[in-house]
Fold:
Amino acid sequence: MDIVKRLSQLENERSSMIPSHEQREDWDILVEKLVKDAISNKETGPAFRLLPDGEKIIDEDFTLRSSPRDMETTLQQISDKIVSFGVQMGNPNNMSYIPGSESYLTALGDYLGAVINPYTGVAITNPGATAMQQSLLKWAGGFLGYTGDFGGDITSGGSIANLTAIITARDAFQIQPEDIRQSTVYYSAHAHHSVTKALHLAGMQYCQQRSISCYEDFAINLEELEKTIAEDKKAGLKPWLLVGNAGTTDTGTVDDLNGMADIAEKYACWFHVDGAYGAAFALCDQGKKQLAGIERTDSVVLDPHKSLFLSFGCGLVLVKNGSALTRAHQFAGNYMRDKGVDESHSPASNSAELTRPFRALRMWLPLTVLGTEPYRAALEEKMLLARYAHEKLGEIENVWVGPLPQLSIVVFRYDSGDAAYDDKINQQLIDEILAEGRFYLSTTTLNNMVVLRLAILATRTNRNAIDSIIDMLKDKISQF
Structure:
């Protein structure tokens, strides 16, 4: 076959991959319409939409074909199968799990990042992108109280951030395969499962893991923690890692971080804090008080896609000893011999990733265009809303309300005094709420009892939303 002729044919066949200016404009109009509809759904629609009875969404609905399909039909499918059903992240009445908030400016940052598409793994390929990430890490470290030569990375979320920190801690302690079964980790009974998952992925699944009980306010029991460490040392084990919580998923509880830091220093352990949900509250004065001691950690994670109100896909890890982070993650290949600059601040030198999206832009753009003040105000607002909700729930007859919220999560349950009966009622209550869809809440178990949660974090959630959900709960509970 004539190679030149075949190349011309192939170039023509793939030409649609580079759309014309006119086609891009047409697509932009169609996408903008879908965006408007999606945002409208979040603003005024229900927080949760179930599929109609008998209807399913299956993977075959999205089967690829060799032939093209027009954009309008394709976007209609996205609207029908994805936008129209499920939990509406960003809806003011979504107070489940740790609710997300869609950010239009984050979306624009993702759009710009994908179009510009810089290679952001190493500094030499785009020094500006690396500098932007470093600036964000310094800003976050600053409001958390980190100083000196700390390092960090912007990750996909808290799970990878926790993994990055645990790998760094493992290598900082030079744990060898023969040391694993003597190395000991301590965490709260309310630690997030991503911590134990990260231990597994880091090859530390066979280390000794101690789940420490909690006080009545669900913070880690410091006396039990220290007693357990002392007993383990006496038994010949090697205490290695303490994991604290800066806002548990269940209750929003912040452990006594200063107390944990004292114990970590006394026993020469690495002190890591999972602040995926709560660490960003340090941006406001009220939150900083609740998080006292977080500046004493060896590593900490926070999720900008939680408490900085960005769209999903943005976590962050900071390590006080930046060199330890780099030593645990910096590798090179023959094909990378032309870098030619100090790569200690390159994202690839501080994470498991080499190629990555331009994550810094999705975080930097909203924080720059709006400034950081609205984010501080939003965090203070959510903390006050949680206290407001706690007070209002306490006024409802036959309702148990958990501890005064430290951050923005309130736990409560119907409580008649008959635990087994009450569990059924609380499950019935959540089932009714989800079936109706106007509000979306979630449950957990505390002390083997089913409890409901108000996780108040969506940007649009305001006092009107809290009043509405309190009125709904009053009405339903009065019927039991």
In short: The longest strand covers residues 238-245. The chain has two domains: 47-101+372-480, 111-369. Residues 21-44 form the longest helix (24 residues). The mean pLDDT is 96.
